[in-house]
Design goal:
heterodimer, A: alpha/beta, globular, B: about 290 residues, mainly alpha
Chain lengths: ~290, ~290
Amino acid sequence: MSTPAIRIRHLTKDFRLGLRLVKLRAVDDLSFAVADNEVFGLLGPNGSGKSTTMKVILGLLEPTHGDCEIFGIRSNTVEARRLVGYLPEAPYFYRFLTGRELVAYYAGICGVPKREQAKRVAEVLELVDMTAAADRRVGTYSKGMLQRVGLAQAVVHDPRLVILDEPTAGVDPIGAQAIGDMIMELKRRGKTVLLCSHLLAQVEGVCNHVAILHKGKLVAEGAVADLLRRQGVSNLAVENLTPAARAEVEAALARHGAKLRGVGDARVALDEFFLSKISASKPAEKQERP
Amino acid sequence: MKQSLGHIVQIARLTFLEAVRQRFFNFVLLLMLALIGSASFFRRFDFGNQELHFIANFGMGGLEFFGALLAVVASAQLFFGEMENRTALTLLAKPVRRWAFIAGKLLGVMALLLVFVTLLTAALAAYLKWRQGELMEIWHQALLAKEVDTEMPEAFRVQFGGLALDALLQWLKFDVLAAITLLVASYSNTNMFTVISSFFIYLICQLEYIAREQLDDLKVEALKRLVLLVSWIFPNFQLYSIGDLLVFPARVPIPDHAIWAAIEYSVIYLVVFWALASLSFRRREI
């Protein structure tokens, strides 16, 4: 078995608050592993310990107990951070730089050789579809553009593990869809992605595995398909179901000891409907332009 | 190590670029240039032979005050700007060592202070040169009219090399103050606390010479040791206040080794404060 991209063992993190140094336990005996080349969702309500866990993985916080490794290297070392790309929640970058200068700055920081920097920067800007706006100042970017340029800086040094904290926060459904596509592209390129998001529909769409935290503890972990499967319950999608056909189906099911639980109109998800309408109107928009 | 040096240069470069865009820097720079320009106002008063002394003291005094202000405020702002905007989070999640981050910030502020001191010293020197030329001409006319016996004496003339040395000493002092501010910022939670504490420390550094002078007269051994300890912890900023002796010919010239000693003294304190700031910042939760 290959080395996991992330391995967390019995991680506990306490914060000391106020003058009396009252102890607040943000993460409580957390253990899980993220396999190489999977998209792993870290879920939980606000204050559940997701950000603290991510900061420990990034070496920005020292655990009170337990340990964390990235591809077998302790996460608080510079060597481990070379393998990681990170997009923070609601990223804020140096507003006076252009997108290209910003990504080049982080490329230099991550040790991308100077002779390769321009090519590599152009490649990642293309990956996140920011080539056209690359020479504009970051201060003029929309939220969606900031997220995309943030993703570009996270992957500019070709890391093995990419950590994305709420990458679609404040981004419209089209931008969110684009970021979802980029995550899938990263997986296709062999990267491991740790995704922290409140958009559960998106997590379900892109993640292989998820871990759910609540009050600092792990409450569920596993493959998305396994966790969401309702044991002993199946769906049938039927077109033109008449009352007579329904009665016959129910009778047939009863003969086999099964029971029809309910019948309703099949629905598409709202975001799917929205995206289909927007993409359908795109050619018309293009024609309208002079 | 090589990569960390590269990080320091890159962080310093970006810190400097960010700093020169700060309104506070531009405001202080313009204010100081206006102050130096306003020195022509003093021509209305008769300072006699002391006019150039007065202009030099006025200019360097302003530089000392606003330079200290800039060293503290810019260092604190640039540090907390990274923390509050969470750009530090993105940067420190990369393979950057925390001591390199502090060193980059310090070098960026030092570069800013160098620009500040160089521009203002150049402006002051240009003004002094022009005014000295005028005064020498007046003196020459007086000599022709036999109102005086000699050309303008050397003692009244500006030594521009000395002015540059004074500027260098002031820059070193501001650098030490910037390092102190970063040390305070490395454990402090707010910009305001950092600025106030750093100014308080600046005052101690400016005034500690008084305690040093009293050291031999102190009777209580414990107090003597305390004063000695304070004088070791805080750099003595009076060492940098020798501008008048440098800018105008002194009866007892300042030996070269004294300047070198001041440079060494500054470098030692810079390294110590940077190391302490790095140590304190190492465990800081970002």
